[in-house]
Structure formats: structure tokens, C-alpha cells
Design goal:
The chain is an alpha+beta fold and 519 residues long. The chain is built from twelve helices and seven strands.
Length: 519
């Protein structure tokens, strides 16, 4: 055995583990920096922006509707004024006709004209605002001219004896009828124009309402789609992250979008959690490994006694009988010492190889050879328990990708548990065969011991759950083993029957690990 070589190997392994921890911390820091380096577009900003946009749209619609309503009110008011004005003018014209037909109601016609003029005076400001300047300049002069003609007709009634009475009356009559017709036509044209404008305004108002409703509905749908898509996509992605972390993939989350938001803060927190989980998992695995080493040490000590005793006896015999031995006998005894020393070296070397801390390293592995080495490592315990391990591997099995030390720890734990659960002089079977899934390979560790009670079989993989006596177990062995197997993309299961033994099945993929996590 070369102590210096073993020490150097342990130093190198320690450096590799330190380098791995440093790389893991550096990767987490780089992922966090990459997540934080993007421009921030938060969900809160999206909510506020969409609310502001909805408010602006509603404000625009409300402004348009208020403007339209005011316009409608002005048109209605103008129609009312025009209607009242036309009504008075038409009434005046009826009285005018009565006068020319029957010689009556001239004073009533004058009264109607005064009322029409009063309507124009009372609404002068509104008419100035609502009417075109050209129309406004025609209405009042027309009314003034009509009133002047009526005044002339009234004055003419005082001169009935005048020889030119009838011609003058005829001239005034013609002028009154023409002026009255013009006034009524202008007022009716104005009413017709305003009614048309009012109808167009009402139609435009309905269109504004319809388009506004469509715009609001489309805006709500679009905003709900964007917000919902952003939320649901992120929730789905983080569900995948959680599943990958649960399976043992501690790759940090890296950016995949051009901006960051509240989910970025969550990703940074998860990266911190991943770093802590990885560190704690490493400590837990190493702690359980050291406990396994403690279990193995008893067997190693027993196993070392035999070669050391043989070396001691042979050395004493050689020293006492050296003079009486020929060269061949001396060489034979020295050869026995060398053989026993080599045997001791192999025992200790196997234990140190298992005990040394090393970084996780995925590499192609021959599962059959790995299991044979693990069975050899546990051979001291099987000898102490006077048990036999039967190993059987199917031919032409594919290689797997995994970490040699971690998988060795899993199978050693299952074999030691099988030894602890079995009576002396019994047997344990270790089988390697194709799994039901063509992309997987299965390892079965079968014991014929007391079995696991049905009411606790669902709890045996829980951390700190143990059926061993106090001080003999931590309850972490199967939990740690399950974590290692999950990290390798596999699964571990158990079937058991009380009094007939248990079968632990480890199923591992023959493919590589999935890609890293991105965000």
C-alpha cells in the first residue's frame, strides 16, 4: 500500500470538490447577474399601464359622448326656437289672409309678428352661436320688412277714401304674401336642415357608442390575453423548474426573455435556494457516507486481523528459524508476507476510495462491474453475518451515465440494509436486468428477512424515518439514496411482505441528463 499515493489522491479529490463548489457558486452568481441585467417590465407596471390606458379610452369615449350630447341639445334647442318662430309666423299669415278675405284679424297678425320678434330677441345670443352668420342676417331683416308692410297696411286702413287706396292695398298685399312666403320658407328650410343635422348627430352618437363598446371589449380581451398568457406561461415554467429541482437537477435558472419582472425576483430567490440545497445535499450525502464507513469499519477491522496475524506469525517464524531455512523456504515465507500485505492494501484501498470526497462526475458506467465492486466492499459485513450474496447480471446490458461514487453509495446502502434485515446464514440476491421501459435498466436487491410492515412502507423514504433501534440509524439512508437516484433521472421503489423479505428496485436511464433550466 502507498500512503503517499492515497494522500495525494485525497488531496486531488478535495480540490476537485472545492472547485465544483466554487463553480456552482459562480454559476449561480452569473445567472443572477444575467437575470438582473435586463430592463425591468414588471407586472405591476403592466397593470398600471393597462388601467391608465383603459382610463384614457373611457375618458376619450366620455368626452366624445358629452360633446355629442351637447351638440344634440343645441340642435334640439334651435329646433324648438325655429318651431316656435315658424308657428308664430304661420299664425300671422293666417290672420293676414283673413284680413284680405274678410277684412278682420289684422291686429292679431301684428300681435303674432311681435311675438315672433320677441322670440328672436329672447334667444338672440343662442341664435348667434347656433346659426350661420348668413342665415342670422336674413331672418331678422325679413321679419322687420314683414312688420313694416303690416304697419303700412294698418296706416292704409285710415285712408280708405283715398283714390289710390285699392292700388296701394293691392301692392301691399302682394308684397306681404311674397315676404311671408319667404319668411316661412326660410324658417322651414332651417328646421329641415337642423332636423337632418340632428339625425346625423344621433346616428354618429350611436356609432360612437357601438365603436366604443367594441374597442373596450377588444381592449379587455387583448389585455386579459397578454396578462393571462404572461402569468400562466411563467407559472408553467416555474412548475417545470420545481419538478426539475425535485428530481435533483440543481442547474441555475438563466434568462430567456428580454426583460425582467416579479418572476425574475422569484427566479433569483430560487437560484439562491438551489445553491443552498446543493450545498446541504452534498453535506447530507457525505454525512451518510461517513456513517456507512463507520459500519464498514467493523468488517474491515475483522478482515484485516487475518492477514495481519498471518504476516506477524510468518515474520516471527522467519526471524526464529532464519538460520535453519534454505533460500526457497525463505522466499516462500517472504512471498506469504507480501501476499497478505497486498490483501490488506486492497481492503484499505477499497475503503478509502469509497470514503474520499470527490466532485460529481457523470461518465459511462458498467453497472454490472460497479455492483460487483460494491458487493466486494460489503463482503466483510456479509462474512460477519455468515451470509451469501448472489449476483446475477443479464448479458449485453447497455451502459448508464452517472456518478460512480454516488451510485456505489446507493447500492452499498441497500445491501447493508438487506444484511441488517436478514437473519444469519441467509442469502441476498442482487440482479441486474432490463427494465419494463426499454430506455431504462433495473437493479433489484432482494432479501429474505422479516419484511416491512404494510402500514409503514409508505414512509420508509421519508427523512429521519427509521425502524432500527435507537442509536443504530439516522433514517437518512433511503432518503439520501432516493435523492441520488432521482438526480440521475431514475427512481427507487420497494415491494415487501412481512415474514418473506423485501425487494428494492433501482431503475436508471441509459440516456444522458436533460438540458439545464432557463428562464
Amino acid at each position: 500500500m502507498n500512503p503517499q499515493g492515497t494522500s495525494a489522491k485525497n488531496v486531488v479529490a478535495g480540490r476537485e470538490a472545492t472547485a465544483e463548489r466554487y463553480d456552482r457558486v459562480k454559476a449561480a452568481e452569473q445567472a443572477s447577474q444575467a437575470l438582473l441585467s435586463r430592463p425591468r417590465v414588471s407586472l405591476k407596471l403592466q397593470v398600471y399601464s393597462s388601467s391608465l390606458l383603459a382610463f384614457l379610452v373611457a375618458l376619450g369615449i366620455a368626452t366624445a359622448l358629452v360633446t355629442t350630447i351637447r351638440h344634440v341639445e343645441r340642435k334640439i334647442r334651435l329646433l324648438n326656437i325655429a318651431s316656435s318662430y315658424v308657428l308664430e309666423i304661420e299664425q300671422a299669415r293666417r290672420f293676414e289672409k283673413n284680413f284680405f278675405l274678410y277684412g278682420t284679424n289684422l291686429s292679431d297678425a301684428m300681435e303674432m309678428v311681435y311675438k315672433a320678434n320677441d322670440i328672436l330677441n329672447r334667444n338672440a345670443t343662442a341664435l348667434k352661436e347656433m346659426l350661420d352668420e348668413e342665415v342670422g342676417q336674413i331672418i331678422r331683416p325679413n321679419l322687420s320688412e314683414y312688420r313694416r308692410l303690416l304697419d303700412e297696411l294698418v296706416a292704409l286702413q285710415q285712408e280708405t277714401d283715398s283714390p289710390d287706396y285699392l292700388p296701394r292695398k293691392k301692392r301691399v298685399e302682394v308684397a306681404l304674401r311674397e315676404q311671408g312666403h319667404n319668411m316661412v320658407s326660410l324658417a322651414q328650410d332651417l328646421m329641415s336642415k337642423e332636423e337632418t343635422a340632428l339625425s346625423e348627430t344621433m346616428e354618429r352618437s350611436r356609432e360612437i357608442l357601438i365603436y366604443a363598446l367594441i374597442l373596450i371589449v377588444l381592449s379587455l380581451i387583448f389585455n386579459a390575453y397578454l396578462f393571462g398568457k404572461r402569468m400562466l406561461n411563467n407559472i408553467d415554467r416555474f412548475a417545470v423548474y420545481a419538478q426539475r429541482i425535485a428530481s435533483g437537477d440543481y442547474t441555475p435558472i438563466t434568462p430567456i426573455r428580454r426583460f425582467r419582472d416579479e418572476f425574475t425576483d422569484l427566479a433569483i430567490t430560487i437560484n439562491q435556494m438551489i445553491h443552498e440545497l446543493g450545498a446541504r445535499e452534498a453535506v447530507l450525502i457525505q454525512s451518510h457516507k461517513m456513517r456507512a464507513i463507520g459500519t464498514l469499519t467493523a468488517g474491515v477491522a475483522h478482515e484485516l486481523n487475518n492477514p495481519l496475524n498471518n504476516i506477524t506469525l510468518t515474520a516471527h517464524m522467519l526471524m526464529e528459524d532464519y538460520g535453519g531455512l534454505n533460500d526457497e523456504e525463505r522466499k516462500e515465507m517472504i512471498g506469504d508476507v507480501i501476499q497478505e500485505a497486498g490483501r490488506s492494501k486492497r481492503i484499505i484501498s477499497n475503503l478509502l476510495d469509497f470514503a474520499r470526497e470527490s466532485s460529481a462526475k457523470l461518465e459511462p458506467l458498467d453497472l454490472g462491474q460497479l455492483l460487483q465492486d460494491t458487493i466486494t466492499l460489503a463482503s466483510n459485513q456479509t462474512k460477519l453475518a455468515d451470509m451469501k450474496v448472489e449476483f446475477n447480471a443479464a448479458g449485453d446490458l447497455p451502459r448508464i451515465h452517472g456518478d460512480d461514487q454516488q451510485l456505489r453509495q446507493v447500492f452499498l446502502n441497500l445491501i447493508l440494509n438487506a444484511i441488517g434485515a436478514s437473519p444469519k446464514k441467509s442469502r441476498i440476491q442482487v440482479l441486474v436486468l432490463p427494465a419494463d421501459d426499454p430506455h431504462y435498466i433495473a437493479v433489484k436487491v432482494i432479501d429474505f428477512g422479516k419484511g416491512i410492515p404494510e402500514h409503514i412502507i409508505g414512509s420508509i423514504f421519508d427523512p429521519f424515518f427509521t425502524t432500527k433501534d435507537k442509536g443504530r440509524g439516522t433514517g437518512l439512508g433511503l432518503s439520501v439514496s432516493q435523492g441520488i437516484v432521482s438526480k440521475h433521472g431514475g427512481r427507487i421503489s420497494v415491494t415487501s411482505k412481512e415474514g418473506a423479505g423485501s425487494t428494492f428496485t433501482v431503475t436508471l436511464p441509459v440516456t444522458t441528463f436533460p438540458a439545464g433550466i432557463t428562464s
